[in-house]
Input
Amino acid sequence: MNFSSLNLALASCVLAWVCLASASSHVASHIVPRQAGSAI
Output
């Protein structure tokens, strides 16, 4: 494995992690107020 393929794998991993974190925070922002409203 050369440096460029390692760098590409690292970049894709970071991009996937950022997308996952963004999606989970987006979903949480939609779900949490709804659960709080129904709990009250």
About this structure: The longest helix spans residues 3-39. The CA atoms of residues 15 and 23 lie 12 Å apart.
